[in-house]
Amino acid sequence: MKEFIKNNKTFIIFISIISVVYFSSLFIHHDIWWDSAVFLGMGKYLWSLGNVGLWEASRPIIWPLLLGFFWKLNLNPIIFGQITAILFSIGTIALTYLIAVNIFNKKTALISSLFLSLFPTYFLFANILHTEIPSAFFTLVGIYFFIKKKHNLAGLLLGIAVMTRFFQIFLIIPIFLVLFYSFYRKKVSMQKSALFPLFFLLPIIPYLILNYLLYNNPLHPFLLQIFMTQNTGFVFNESFSFYFINLFKENILILFALVGLFTILKKPSKNSMLLSLIFLFGFIPYNIIAHKEMRLLIPIFPFIAILMSHGIFYFADSVKKYKVILLSLLSIIFIIQAMPQLKFNAYEDNLDDFYDYIKKTGTNPRLWISNPAFIVFSDAKADELVYYPAYNSDKIDDLMLNVDNADTILLNTCDLLPCPPNDSNCDKKSSDFIDNLKERFITSSYSKNRDCEYYIFTFG
Fold it and tell me: Residue 185: which domain range?
């Protein structure tokens, strides 16, 4: 460690500064994002054996297990979760540096870590309780150990990465391909080639067994996730050009990632080619899927940052006479573009009516909710998720069929809309559903915030 600090003083200073900046985000109030509330609720559900919280079968369980562990210890899972998220964010930056050092050099590594830390989307999500950054951390640790030829440990950590976020499997496919190629060329022994996938499966097999016991199908969460990808989130559907345009908006120097990619493909080394393949295998699927959000690209950001940095120094070295001027100009452009975009999470959900109700009434039996955040500050259990797995005509029919099983229903109409574009009956059924609730239940509370109507229905 002393040797590392001695040889990487500039990076140590940089990571210390960025750590202070990131931890300062804890002093900025913000409400809990939707997915964060789901993971917190699932964590409580897991550690209480189903007596508290909520359950969404389509989600991986590593992050909920960690958040729920804080709750089980009687610690505030939100505060300690944010601290953990920031540590993962800082760790991801550090790993980006370490990987770039091993593949390229210190200059490329330092600028890579700087780019990553100041990507506006990455900066915003540094303390948000989503899985993108934790899964990126585990993926990078696995890649780092793979580069260091510690294949068993690499396999285990990459398996944990997939159990943190299913989509990480696309980033890991190239590692299997490289390993298979190395075995084919007799550069890796049969033992190492076999042990890597075995260690990769160690955190996955218990999950598959659990799925079989719960759903009679070990692949149920994966199939459900595919269904939800096709039937939810229509408001996030974007054109093919979405990521290209928004990456350019995040950092105009993103164009140098293409330079970096081209130079690697032109004269590859084993590890630089692995880096390029991971980027391509990770980035291309996101562009094919209609649902697009910049946060989804966060696990790809470290690889983009390294390619950008490599491309910049390659280009600068090709114009040696003007290298200092060029690098100075690019630094100014980066600062001018990035700094105004940097902001910490200050999300306001305007759901205080629901929080106040749960706080006053405690754990409501037979509780239905349309938003996972409604119970995030309590030890209540949601018996029905009105929005899950998809709010459509079939779901509404099912809710109406089982409405007698509800005693309390917390409903925000904006959580339920818009209906799927191909479901022509959904809007009418949704309106009828709310009218039916008004008739069968007591409207204990009603308010309106812009186009969102807030209902609290109680029975008797």
Answer: 2-341
